[in-house]
Amino acid sequence: MSTSTEQFADVSATTLLRFATAGSVDDGKSTLVGRLLHDSKSVLTDQMEAVEQASRARGAEGPDLALLTDGLRAEREQGITIDVAYRYFATPRRRFILADTPGHVQYTRNMVTGASTAELTVILVDARKGIVEQTRRHAAIAALLRVPHVVLAVNKMDLVDYQESVFAAVTEEFTTFATELGVAEITAIPISALVGDNVVAASAQMDWYGGPTILEHLEAVQLADDSKSRPSRFPVQMVIRHDGERHYAGQLLTGRLRVGDTVTVQPSGRVTTITALDVLGQPADVVSAGSSLSVRLADEIDVGRGDMITTGAQSPRLTKVVEATACHVADTPLTVGQRLLLKHTTRTVRAIVEEIPSRLTLDDLSQHPDPGQLVANDIGHVKVRTAEPLALDSYADSRHTGSFLLIDPVDGTTLAACMAGEPFAARIAKSGAADDGWDF
Are 258 and 240 contacting, i.e. CB atoms less than 8 angstroms apart? Predict the structure, then answer.
């Protein structure tokens, strides 16, 4: 008997929130995460005992909740976050996957990793310091990655005597900058992660603030998942031969697939129909985005890993010339003429960097023309030519099929995370301001 995966997928989508934390060094990200876990009763007893023991060894009077996320030895010794720390916790209202990202400029690349799949980003600002360059960089990355919800957490309010005027000034400056970037939704919350003000429980010290706490907002934020309504994109990950038939396995990134659908295999352009769908070894009539499955087709055509099965009138663009915005994440620079590998979904092809037209200057959002190279943590516009055609969407249309990686072919190091489409901040350059976001 055939079944549908839609009901299970819909329940999962409405109860799970993926979010990331970001901010400059010593703004208190790890402390906020630790406080959030501790006050929501998501910390096991043995974990808390280990934190208390480590805190005493460092001479702290009380438990240092930042140690709940700073798990690497180097992180504990230096007192900074280096790697992305993922934490899973739940409340009666929602389940969460949290990515605590580094604040040090040297590890900004890891913020790209943590925020790339996030539906919400919490950007911390020290109330005493206000907006700094790293705050601007993190806001730019959140906008670039099209994270739909941004929370400005103005931290350490206890160190500025809980003054409303300080919170208002920081909020106004950040909102002005983020709005220019095209961030659509900004929620500002005054907090003290160290003592717990407005993290899980409302603060008695800030009666002038009437909004939600951090946890209340995380539980209540509305997630608009339109991945199921988009044209279907199914990158083939593996070909399985069973009982004389070919099964094409992978994850459906967007849209829905139904038995009997007419589909196109990219990049060959061959048209056929779906004869069967299988999820977890069971037949299904219809499968929605986010599900892993195998597909059987009516015709014996050449389909392999890296090909993409698509439906709908809006086919992905087949191209060998890709223009994109790149976040450079490697220690070695990205240079014009460099030969590398490009990984898009399950397809990896040879490529060459033809041009680096500009690099973004975060202070004033201006473009530095023809930099010749991008170095670690740079954001710039690149033009890449590939040896084989790619079935590519604009990142503005799909975070899944509009993104790709540039990889060093010698050692497999990831060089840059890229978003396909119009040059970075092009609309700002043309109009002087942004209304509904950048075109990428």
Answer: no
Integer CA distances (angstroms), 408 to 112, 171, 334, in order? 18, 41, 10
Decide if 392 contacts 311 (C-beta within 8 A). no
For residue 224, pLDDT beyond 60: yes
Confirm if 245 and 276 have CB atoms less than 8 A apart.
no
Residue 223's nearest CA partner among 346, 338, 95 is: 95
19 contacts 114 by C-beta, under 8 angstroms? no
Q: What's residue 77's pLDDT?
A: 43
Distance of alpha carbon 118 from alpha carbon 18, whole angstroms = 5
Residue 419 in contact with residue 404, Cβ under 8 Å?
no
**CB-based contact 382:423 (threshold 8 Å):** no
Write the pLDDT tens digit of every residue in 369-415: 999 899 988 889 999 999 999 999 988 888 889 999 999 999 999 99
The tokens describing 103, both together, are 């604040």
User: 117: buried, middle or exposed (CB in 10 Å: 19+, 13-18, 0-12)?
Assistant: middle
Name the residue among 124, 314, 142, 120 with its Cα closest to residue 221: 120
Residue-wise pLDDT for 190-217, tens only, equals 999 989 999 999 999 999 999 999 999 9
The pLDDT of residue 421 is: 83
Question: Between the CA atoms of 374, 376, 381 and 387, what dihedral angle is there, to the nearest 10 degrees?
Answer: 80
Contact status, residue 297 vs residue 291, Cβ threshold 8 Å: no
Whole-number Å distance between alpha carbons of 343 and 46: 42
Six token digits for residue 375 = 């170095």
Nearest Cα to 246, choosing from 274, 283, 267, 279? 274
Digit-coded pLDDT (tens) for 330-365: 889 999 999 999 999 999 999 999 999 999 876 666
Q: What pTM, to 2 d.p., does this model score?
A: 0.78
